[in-house]
Specification:
By secondary structure, this protein is an alpha/beta fold. Helices cover 37% and strands 17% of the residues. It binds uridine-5'-diphosphate (UDP).
């Protein structure tokens, strides 16, 4: 099958390209590099199953057929990035998603949207189940991301209802692994970078807020299965192993063997207090659940950051 994938040079997008090619599919990869990185796709250069086009999906795109599947992963997914680029974030979730849906419609292709646990906002239902409508501040600093994804979900359902498109919606929870951007401000690269450089680890708030971290290979496996399923409503994909951010900092300290202190910094506005996916639906419909232990996943991630061309200590 031939897939078009937006956000292909991103962290999850590049791993998804690898998986599609490993499964014998061909890929037309799109990215405008607002947050993606060329090095994430370097290893696919020259592969006959892989074509890359630098493109901002907010501009309409004509694609020569055939196209069997459209996978929409383009997004500024880290809080630091979307707070710096709120308008681009809203645009790519709305106009960008619509343009990708149009390609799917024109080619009678399947369509997968990667949405987010942020659709639940600062959730009052715990763990988060797909039928929960969420607690989102529509005008707060995170609203550019949350509302763009909620709109993206809505227009995806509208294309399914009006044009009978075969759509899927994944709600992705916190994911980590090799190819994350070291300086994107997210907690995994931040803590690893700080501990490797011997700097204090910055815990926001008192560190009692919780997150649940899924290794990227597990997540991509879930996306891959979902992309071939007939489930039209959102499916949570994430690892249900929940911990406080303070516990998470301790884990990284233990694995890296560092003794750096913890420095408490102010909690960002609207930072969700708790987050844990309820994944019964993914288990039932996709036969999917995460397999990679946190420790093994973190070790692979740390090794990746240590091997980056620019040594961590010299950045
Ligand atoms: N966080 C932190 N220190 C950092 C970066 C993030 O304590 O240097 C916290 C952040 O406040 C949030 C959690 O870690 O509660 C996860 O943040 P991240 O930016 O990775 O993603 P989010 O889940 O908020 O989208």
């Amino acid at each position: 099958m031939r897939f078009i994938i937006s956000g292909a040079a991103g962290f999850i997008g590049s791993h998804f390209c690898d998986r599609l090619i490993a499964e014998g599919h061909s890929v037309l990869a799109l990215d405008n590099f607002i947050t993606g990185a060329t090095r994430n796709l370097e290893h696919l250069k020259g592969n006959p199953a892989f074509v890359f086009r630098e493109w901002d999906i907010c501009r309409p795109l004509e694609v020569e057929g055939p196209v069997d599947g459209v996978l929409n992963l383009a997004s500024l997914a880290s809080p630091k990035d979307y707070l710096e680029h709120p308008i681009e974030t809203l645009e790519v979730g709305s106009v960008g998603t619509r343009n990708m849906l149009e390609i799917a419609r024109q080619h009678h292709a399947r369509f997968l949207l990667t949405s987010t646990s942020e659709c639940y906002g600062d959730p009052l239902v715990h763990p988060q189940v797909e039928t929960y409508w969420g607690n989102v501040n529509p005008v707060g600093p995170r609203s550019c991301y949350d509302e763009s994804k909620r709109y993206a979900e809505a227009i995806t359902m509208a294309y399914h209802r009006v044009h009978k498109l075969r759509t899927n919606i994944a709600r992705i929870f916190n994911t980590y692994g090799p190819r994350m951007q070291l300086n994107d401000g997210r907690v995994v690269p931040a803590f690893i970078d700080q501990s490797l450089r011997g700097e204090p680890m910055t815990v926001f708030g008192d560190g009692s807020q919780t997150r649940s971290f899924c290794y990227v290979d597990d997540l991509v496996d879930g996306l891959f299965r979902l992309a071939f399923s007939d489930e039209r409503y959102p499916v949570n994909l994430g690892n249900p192993l929940e911990m406080t951010i303070l516990e998470f900092a301790e884990r990284i300290r233990r694995i890296t063997g560092t003794t750096v202190p913890i420095k408490f910094e102010p909690l960002p506005e609207d930072d969700p207090k708790q987050r844990q996916p309820q994944i019964d639906k993914a288990k039932r419909i996709l036969g999917w659940q995460p397999k990679v232990e946190l420790e093994a996943g973190l070790r692979a991630t740390i090794e990746y950051f240590q091997k980056l061309d620019t040594p961590v200590a010299a950045r």
